[in-house]
Structure formats: structure tokens, C-alpha cells
Automatic annotation (TrEMBL):
Domain of life: Bacteria
A Pfam cross-reference name: SBP_bac_1
Name assigned to this protein: Extracellular solute-binding protein
Signal peptide segment: 1-19
InterPro entries for the chain: Bact_solute-bd_prot1, SBP
Sorted UniProt keywords: Signal
Native species: Plantactinospora sonchi
Length: 452
């Protein structure tokens, strides 16, 4: 799912018969002259600080690589329009997709094989193997560059916790504690204690994460069989029912997406909800929540909990790009995303620039590299960290130990969309038959998988 998301995000973030946009090149052969690439994800003028950072990256990159021309493009991933964008040939050279899209794109040959463009000394080759695996096929060929990874956690408002007499440094570790905290927040402050996204595939995404935390996946490991109708998912829906119909701590709007819920949380209108850790930037930097009010805890685990859902963003390259353009795109991705991990000077320069642009340094995220590399980077930029990392101690403590469970390996987004309606039904109908809903969802998801 998109996060920073995001989600998204931020979420943060190609077709075999694509017609190319200007500058993408027209074949897989070498072309003469400088390589020209278009790069998706350029921030709009509504976010001037992020746009400044994007343009600065282009300026610095072209200074270091005068043989490459980079043009920004505002295109971003949207599950409702992505396939049309592919079919219409409007993707830039570099585009960003959720982890869930990769295996389908690889199977349909809608994304470039970049294995030969990754050198032995490339930073890409040192990405955590468990994360890089999402971009590979059965032959170990690489089709994308993970630029950001997240794990799902429990977002909570530290200020509301204090007002409710709860210790913000000791967030809930069980779902029973989440329920009790939701009651305490709503009783003391009148603010909705707990929330969940419910539409645009986000309801099913969160339901899946909570199913993992309660003991079951929603698809077999090979992606061939749906396992939606299971006791863990049933227990999550019963949890929702309790908060909605018994405690009345689930609010009154049950058709909300990523932006709706994150905006409400940033505005102090929600006490807790489940989200990807990468959404810190969206909630704090873009939506104005006070950094000291933002809290994130590990996703609470049931007695049979499997861990937490992990996902992220992958940069893909238009398969019609020339070899020179592909190499230029890899250079761009490494320059923008990874140079700070190999050079103290680059790390400090990047941190200084982000602080000047009012962007976070040291925000909670799932490390792409090993702990030693991550710790070295944080040591280099310690004087520029502008995020109260001590407030996220519980999350950081389990970032390397709480098991990461991947998203469904086949038809994940379609599965999430099907589960959206199940979540909506439980929250809007007091007499909703959870067993019947799950049985119906099981049948529909299996049909989606079988359709291939």
C-alpha cells in the first residue's frame, strides 16, 4: 500500500507497449548525446519546501553528472488510474510504486530488468536482502530499487494521552489496552479514541496488518489461495464491532481514506489509528501536527501474533528506456536516496538542507540497510536531527526484532478493495454477520486470484 504510505506517500513514490513521454528515449539501444530522463514524484507548488529539495537535488545531480538531463514530473501512483497510465504510455522514465505492485509488473513484463545496470559496488546491491527480494523474479533478476520501507505501527496522540491520564511513554502493547486507552481518551477529552481508514483499499490494508498481529495471513505464501476467512481476521472485526457499537469510540464517519484519516489525526481529532511509520512526514511536515504530539508504537500483538505488515516504495524504470537512460536513472536514484549513507560530508549536507527546508531528519522509518550503517548515518547527522526520537523509543526498540510479514503476494490491492467493504459493513450495520461477510470475501478474493 502507498504510504507516505505515503502509505503513504507516503506515502513518498513501464509497460511493455508504452509510448514514451518526451525525453524517455525510443528503444533499448544506445542513443547518442546526453541521456535525458523524466522523474516522477515532483512536489507541487503547494509544498514549496519539498519542491525546493527536489529542485536542489536536480541541480546538484546535474552538476555532478553533466551528461544527464533530469526533468521533474508530478505524476504519482494511484491504484485507480495506474493501469490506464501504463496503457496510455504516460509514465516517466522513473516512477514509484508500492511493494504490492512489483510481482505483477514483473510477471506482465511491464517494468525494466535493471540487473545489468547495477554494478558490483552499487549501493543498491547492499540493500537489506529481505527488502530487495520484493523487486526480484525467480531467477534473481532485479526490476526496481526500493527507496523506502515501512512497518505498520500504532499512531497515537501523545498530548491526548497525557490529558486522559495515560503515560505517552508507555503506549498500548495489546488490543485490550488499545480499547481501554480509546475509552479513556474519549471520556477525558471528547476526542474520538480510535479510527481506521476504510476506503480506497486502505480498510483492507489495515485489516490485513491487524490480522497478522492476531495470528493469520489472508493468503497462502505462494499467493494461490485466499485465507481471508480465518479466526484472526474475525477477531479484528469483533474488535471493531466492540469499539463501534459497545464503546462508541470509533467515531461516526466510516467512509474515510488515507488523507482523511491522517488529516484528522494531525488535527488532534483522533486518539489512535494503525498506519505505516513513514507517514510521519505527511502528518507532521505536511499537515502541521506538533512533533512532540506525534507518537508511534509497535503494532500490538495478540497471543498468536505473527508480527507486523511491512511494505514500502520501489522506483521502477520504463522498459522502453535505452541502456544509457537506465544507467542514468540508477545514478539518479542512488544520488538522491543513498549517497548520505556512504559519506559523512554528504550526510551532513543533506541534513542541513532538509533542516533549512523544514523537513524531518531522523524520523521513524524501517532502515533499508543494516543497523551498523543506520547507526553510522545517525551519528554523522546527530547535530541536525529535528525529530524527538526519544518519543518513539518503543517503536525503535522493535524495529529490528518484530517480525515483518509481507503483503499478500498476489492481487494485494484487489484483495484490500474487497475487504474495504467488509470493514465498512461492520462499522455501519450493528447486525452485520461477520461470518457471512468473511465467507463472501473469501469467495470473491479467491475468484480474483484465480482470474490471474
Amino acid at each position: 500500500m502507498t504510504s507516505t504510505r505515503t502509505r503513504l506517500l507516503a506515502l513518498a513514490l513501464a509497460g511493455a507497449t508504452l509510448a514514451l513521454v518526451p525525453g524517455c528515449g525510443g528503444s533499448n539501444s544506445e542513443s547518442s548525446g546526453p541521456a535525458s530522463i523524466t522523474v516522477a514524484g515532483m512536489p507541487t507548488s503547494r509544498h514549496p519546501e519539498e519542491l525546493n529539495n527536489f529542485n536542489r537535488n536536480i541541480s546538484e545531480f546535474t552538476k555532478a553528472n553533466p551528461d544527464v538531463k533530469v526533468v521533474g514530473d508530478e505524476a504519482t501512483f494511484d491504484v485507480r488510474t495506474f493501469q490506464a497510465l501504463l496503457a496510455g504510455g504516460k509514465l516517466p522514465t522513473v516512477f514509484y510504486v508500492p511493494f504490492t505492485e512489483m510481482q505483477g509488473l514483473i510477471a506482465r513484463r511491464q517494468v525494466a530488468d535493471i540487473t545489468s545496470a547495477i554494478g558490483a559496488d552499487s549501493v543498491v546491491s547492499r540493500i537489506n536482502p529481505a527488502i530487495l527480494k520484493v523487486t526480484k523474479d525467480a531467477s534473481d533478476h532485479v526490476y526496481g530499487v526500493p527507496i523506502q520501507a515501512y512497518s505498520m505501527g500504532l499512531f497515537y496522540n501523545r498530548d491526548l494521552f497525557r490529558k486522559a491520564g495515560l503515560d505517552p511513554d508507555k503506549p498500548p502493547t495489546t488490543w485490550e489496552e488499545v480499547r481501554a486507552a480509546a475509552k479513556a481518551i474519549q471520556t477525558a477529552t471528547g476526542v474520538q479514541g480510535f479510527a481506521s481508514m476504510t476506503k480506497d483499499n486502505t480498510g483492507g490494508w489495515v485489516l490485513t496488518a491487524m490480522s497478522y498481529a492476531n495470528g493469520s495471513t489472508i493468503a497462502s505464501a505462494d499467493g494461490r489461495n485466499a485465507t481471508v476467512d480465518n479466526n484472526a481476521t474475525r477477531s479484528v472485526l469483533e474488535f471493531y464491532r466492540s469499539l463501534r457499537w459497545e464503546d462508541n469510540t470509533f467515531g461516526s464517519n466510516f467512509l474515510t481514506g488515507y488523507n482523511d484519516t491522517t488529516k484528522a489525526f494531525a488535527g488532534g481529532k483522533i486518539g489512535m489509528f494503525v498506519q505505516g511509520a513513514d507517514a510521519y512526514k505527511v502528518v507532521v511536515s505536511n499537515m502541521g501536527m506538533k512533533p512532540d504530539d506525534f507518537g508511534i508504537a509497535p503494532l500490538p500483538q495478540g497471543p498468536q501474533g505473527l508480527g507486523t505488515l511491512g511494505g514500502g516504495t520501489v522506483a521502477i524504470i520504463n522498459p522502453r528506456a535505452s541502456a544509457a537512460e537506465t544507467r542514468a536513472a540508477i545514478k539518479w536514484l542512488e544520488f538522491v536516496n543513498f549517497r548520505k549513507y556512504d559519506s559523512e560530508a554528504e550526510a551532513v549536507a543533506d541534513a542541513k538542507a532538509k533542516v533549512a527546508d523544514k523537513q524531518p531528519v531522523g524520523d521513524p522509518a524501517l532502515p533499508l540497510f543494516d543497523q551498523a550503517t543506520t547507526d553510522r548515518y545517525l551519528g554523522w547527522v546527530k547535530d541536525y536531527v529535528n525529530v524527538p526520537r526519544q518519543n518513539y523509543a518503543a517503536y525503535f526498540a522493535t524495529a529490528q526484532t518484530l517480525a515483518l510479514v509481507p503483503e499478500p503476494p498476489a492481487k494485494a490491492q484487489e484483495t484490500y478493495g474487497t475487504l474495504d467493504t467488509v470493514v465498512q459493513a461492520v462499522l455501519t450495520r450493528q447486525d452485520a454477520d461477520i461470518d457471512a461477510l468473511l465467507k463472501d470475501a473469501q469467495r470473491k478474493v479467491q475468484a480474483i486470484i484465480d482470474a490471474g
